[in-house]
Design brief:
The protein is an all-alpha fold. Helices cover about 35% and strands about 0% of the residues. The radius of gyration is 37 Å and the shape is rod-shaped.
């Protein structure tokens, strides 16, 4: 009888010890917060994505966004507006994940829809150029050209170069993507780029024996397309006042600025007939 009683007491003590162990373990588990190093034990892909392309998300531990975990937390996926609020870009009617497809790589953005409005909340300078300098580009969606965020397409994706000498990398030396008809260039732009459209002028200039042939197109036609310089800007009042008074127009004698002092033609060249209006780009 005593032995049976002793066994019962031992079993009771053992049961109490086991229950106490689980109770203490549960309390400790509840009191010990999880760390990102705990998350990675099951979720290996997401932490790796954040580490590689997390942008500012990389500076936060997992628990700043995922405050709980199932089953104790019914929804451990946070809404973006939990942190992202107070700026026009965050007030879009577009679902965030339609562009920012993976919150663990927030700046790896691929577009599938025709979008403009969401882009303009950040890219205001580009919008200003498009609206103030109308061209065919102004009528396009942003995502027509920019299918992936921060990726600039080559102009030759849609446009043919003016000549075989011009590569895709050269286009932006004269044309800006958001205001393509405002053509500007640096002083060192090669004359052969100009020759693609201005063939006759280039042929005359390169065949000429005058000093003008030693200058690049951009030396005279500075900074902006269709800029026609005044001869006096470089040459000043080159002749005595009497001659200048009798012949106020330089080309009455010097004929053609691209074929200077070629007196085989006795008549100064007529003004070029206006070209047919080109279609807008």
């Amino acid at each position: 009888m005593n032995r049976s009683r002793g066994v019962k007491i031992m079993l009771l003590l053992l049961s109490f010890a086991v229950l106490s162990f689980y109770a203490v373990s549960g309390v400790m588990a509840a009191e010990t917060p999880l760390k990102s190093t705990d998350c990675v034990k099951c979720h290996s892909v997401q932490p790796a994505s954040v580490e590689a392309n997390g942008a500012k998300h990389k500076t936060f531990p997992c628990q700043d966004c995922h405050a709980g975990h199932r089953p104790t937390s019914k929804n451990n996926i946070p809404v973006c507006s939990q942190c992202h609020a107070g700026k026009p870009h965050f007030d879009q009617k577009v679902v965030c994940l339609s562009c920012h497809r993976d919150p663990h790589t927030p700046l790896k953005i691929t577009f599938t829809d025709k979008l403009t409005a969401p882009c303009l909340t950040c890219h205001t300078a580009q919008n200003k150029q498009l609206t103030e300098n109308k061209s065919k580009h102004s009528a396009l969606y942003c995502t027509t050209c920019h299918g992936v965020h921060r990726v600039k397409p080559a102009c030759t994706q849609c446009h043919k170069p003016h000549s075989a000498d011009i590569t895709a990398a050269d286009c932006t030396k004269c044309h800006k993507a958001h205001m393509p008809k405002v053509v500007t260039y640096a002083a060192d732009v090669p004359s052969k780029f100009c020759a693609a459209c201005h063939k006759n002028q280039f042929a005359l200039l390169t065949a000429s024996k005058a000093l003008h042939s030693k200058q690049s197109c951009a030396f005279c036609h500075q900074e902006k397309h269709k800029m026609v310089p005044n001869c006096k800007d470089c040459h000043g009042a080159k002749h005595p006042e009497g001659i200048m008074a009798k012949f106020p127009k330089c080309l009455e004698c010097h004929k053609h600025p691209h074929d200077l002092n070629n007196w085989t033609n006795t008549v100064a060249p007529k003004a070029a007939a206006p070209k047919a209006k080109q279609k807008k780009h």
